[in-house]
């Protein structure tokens, strides 16, 4: 789930489509029923269909139920295509049915991994101070393609990344005052490393901050040599 304040384009459309029964190409309705389909009058028993999703029997019913499940998830928070595919797999939706549903939602603009990645980078960098490396790892865990991940994180300006890292150090400095300078440095560098900042940048910024408080930069640890 994205942090508060992050919205992906098309999510509100998902809710609207579900409420209105908007029709996608091929006559499928985003609201869960095909236009003009009449109820059989039978009461729902709550049992799962053979496709593994609750809904009307048969391929059309399984597809409608899978589509409704995706729309519910998209209404609660933006998701990647891979996340929705995993959700349908957990519901035992056949792969061919899942692909059709996801293709239609993508064509309707309700699934957009590029917009998701851009919003994720902006929100997580601003809200949590994460650097490119950590942001890329989070997006890949959510199934975003490498090319899309790279485009999204490359949009983060290096100067902005350094400014954010410096602000994190200055904020954390207050809670480490009184400790040994070497311990302070390790703690601050470790904090930046967990957020994805490089050792070279982390050591430089922490040294500068500690030197401003009177620490001898020559007595502070150096960054480890880069690994091969």
Detailed description of the structure:
The chain is mainly alpha-helical and 228 residues long. The chain has 3 domains: 78 residues, no CATH class; 42 residues; 62 residues. Helices cover 57% and strands 0% of the residues. The chain has 10 helices and no strands. Helix 2 packs across helix 4 and helix 5 packs across helix 7. The longest helix is centred in the N-terminal third of the chain and has 19 residues. It is elongated and about 70 Å long.
Task: Offer a quick outline of the entry.
The protein is mostly helical. It has helices spanning 11-20, 58-76, 81-90, 95-107, 113-128, 132-141, 146-154, 158-173, 181-194, 199-212. The radius of gyration is 24 Å and the shape is elongated.
User: What's the mean pLDDT score?
Assistant: 80
Helix-strand pattern, N to C? HHHHHHHHHH
**Number of separate domains:** 3
Rounded to the nearest angstrom, the radius of gyration is 24 Å
- List how many beta strands DSSP finds: 0
Shape summary:
elongated
State the end-to-end CA separation.
36 Å
User: Which class of secondary structure composition applies to the elements?
Assistant: mainly alpha
The major β-sheet equals: none
Strand content: under 5%
List unreliable stretches of 5+ residues: 1-51, 54-58
GO biological process, one term: regulation of DNA repair
Keywords: Cytoplasm
Biased composition (Gly residues): 52-61
InterPro entries: RecX_HTH_1st, RecX_HTH_2nd, RecX_HTH_3rd, Regulatory_RecX, WH-like_DNA-bd_sf
